[in-house]
Design brief:
Length: 354
């Protein structure tokens, strides 16, 4: 009798506990996945063919729902970084997690979450847009009964419905980029990685692409995009990560970076009468205001100085007065709010393509 009671006790209580533990395991697993940063990379280094060091101990993270711009000049390592995140390349050292999954160990879990638009558009030129999207849907396991509606939606978003039955090789650069962009959201991706989304496209296509990215953000998708266009980062990014020579050089919202590196305003003056030996720090010292840069035209013509200002309108006449007192001729003077281009200039001392 006692034995039977024990068995009944076990069968009633223990089995449900095991079931509950397995539910709890699933729940915890989902919780861990949903709490993890969307991207977390640490100490990531990549060396090509044992010689070119493209990334050097790069660390950063991207949270869910953020739109982050990875900014840097050509050769900075942006494309290398995103190829490592998508698992196309394997890092020399360091760790990469996507939605909590270590990329090297869980490539399938990572791939199905990512929509990737590579820098070099990789589309089968002999297919039509319609065929290319159907092929992609099949590859990513989009349920058969949803394919035709989703493909039609994507063609519409890309503004390509009227050209859907033409071969891709007949498309303009902008049309190809638009197609590559919508392909990233055809399957149930959570993270979009866009490498130079508007490289070589016309203004019309660029606007269309930017608006799609804004729409993706509203839908709660996470976006990491590489660019060396300052205005693209300014227009789209919630946060910017600046890299140069494979290293992180600055990170923050566009406003934070402007405050940190430039200040409230920039005064831009065109000056005549400067000694060729005079540099930005000399001018800054004379003015008692930090001078970011002083151009040095090869023809020895007027030089442009960029001066940091907190007070803005109140500073402008004072600066002109002081410059005149120094015996310089102010040919033009303008006050403006800093752009990300100015931030880049302040950080690296060189201009990015604007
Ligand atoms: N396949 C490759 N083989 C060798 N070197 C490469 C390769 N791809 C890129 N690099 C080099 O790695 C560095 C970073 O390149 P990349 O990641 O393409 O920079 P970005 O996208 O910022 O322009 C550059 O010096 C580049 O020449
Ligand atoms: Mg690149």
């Amino acid at each position: 009798m006692r034995r039977v009671t024990t068995v009944r006790y076990e069968s009633l209580a223990v089995t449900p506990v095991v079931t509950r533990i397995s539910y709890l395991h699933d729940y915890m697993y989902q919780l861990v996945v949903s709490l993890a940063s969307m991207i977390e990379i640490s100490d990531l280094s990549h060396i090509y063919s044992g010689k070119t060091k493209a990334l050097d101990k790069l660390s950063f993270s991207v949270e869910r729902g953020e739109v982050v711009g990875l900014l840097g000049p050509n050769g900075a390592g942006k494309s290398t970084a995103v190829k490592l995140i998508t698992g196309i390349l394997h890092p020399t050292s360091g760790s990469i997690k996507v939605a909590g999954f270590e990329v090297a160990e869980n490539l399938a879990e990572v791939r199905k979450r990512i929509g990737f638009m590579p820098q070099e558009t990789s589309l089968y030129q002999d297919l039509t847009a319609h065929e290319a999207l159907e092929y992609h849907a099949d590859l990513y396991g989009v349920p058969k009964d949803e394919v035709s509606e989703r493909v039609a939606n994507m063609l519409d978003l890309a503004g390509l419905t009227h050209r859907k039955n033409d071969r891709i090789k007949t498309y303009s650069g902008g049309m190809k980029r638009r197609l590559a962009l919508v392909r990233t959201i055809l399957h149930d991706s959570e993270l979009l990685i866009l490498d130079e989304m508007s490289l070589g496209v016309d203004v019309h296509s660029r606007n269309l692409i930017w608006n799609q990215v804004r729409r993706m953000r509203e839908e709660g998708l996470t976006v990491l995009f590489c660019t060396n266009y300052m205005d693209e980062a300014e227009a789209l990014a919630d946060r910017v990560i600046v890299i140069d020579n494979g290293k992180l050089v600055a990170e923050g919202t566009p406003d934070e970076l402007k405050q940190e590196y430039v200040g409230n305003y920039l005064i831009e003056v065109l000056l005549e009468g400067l000694d060729p030996e005079n540099d930005a720090s000399w001018l800054g010292g004379q003015l008692g205001m930090k001078t970011e840069k002083l151009s040095k035209p090869l023809d020895g013509g007027p030089r442009t100085a960029w001066i940091k200002s907190q007070a803005g309108h109140a500073d402008l006449p004072l600066v002109i007065e002081k410059l005149t007192e120094l015996g310089l001729k102010v040919k033009q003077a303008a006050l403006r709010e800093p752009s990300l281009g100015d931030v880049f200039l302040a950080i690296t001392g060189s201009k990015l393509r604007d």
